[in-house]
Amino acid sequence: MLIIGIIIIAFLIIFLVLIGVLRVYAMIDWSFTEEEQQLDIQLRILGFTIMKKDLENLNENENNLSKHIQLKHLKYVHKFAIENIRFEMLKTKTIVGTGEPDTTAVLYGMLQTFFTIISAQLHDKGLCDCRLSANFEEAVIHSDGQCMISWKLRKTMRVWKRWKTKGE
Predict the structure, then answer these.
(1) Average pLDDT over residues 4-13
(2) 77 lies in some domain
(3) Is the dihedral of CA 109, 111, 112, 114 positive or negative?
(4) Other beta carbons less than 10 A from residue 90's beta carbon
(5) Where on the tree of life does the source sit, at the highest rank (predicted)?
(6) Number of structural domains in the chain
(7) At residue 41, what are phi and psi to the nearest 5 degrees?
(8) Is 72 inside any structural domain?
(9) Is 150 helix (H, G, I), strand (E, B) or coil?
(10) Which of 23, 41, 63, 115 is close enough to 130 for a disulfide, judged by CB 3.0 to 4.6 Å?
């Protein structure tokens, strides 16, 4: 009986240590054009896929998504994202154009700034390949890419616990 108790305590200690060091990885693949929008999300822990979601034609599902997302939930997601998420990889090829050269230039500048900031964070890892181009003659948006972010599992559990204890 004592041996079984020691084994159970050892498994609990190993489990708690793993929760403290494990990272959840989210792989996000996207392809956006004027005709089609596709978003694939995979969550992985220790190489095992724990969730896989494929979303197509996001404009058609916009009303369904907005019903479930409330402003108070976004506050917690934003706080969690700023404090805990780490970019692991970003690869994208994006073409933007508004049909108006001056508006396209402003949009291109804003996107280039965003990509530069993200590239600076990922520069040490060498896992950033952001290609951005502008089409000044016609209105077009086309983006294909892949992004991987990670966060520690224990921080996810803390945020979820706070969220649930506040009754929201």
Answers:
(1) 90
(2) no
(3) positive
(4) 20
(5) Bacteria
(6) 1
(7) -125, 130
(8) no
(9) strand
(10) 115
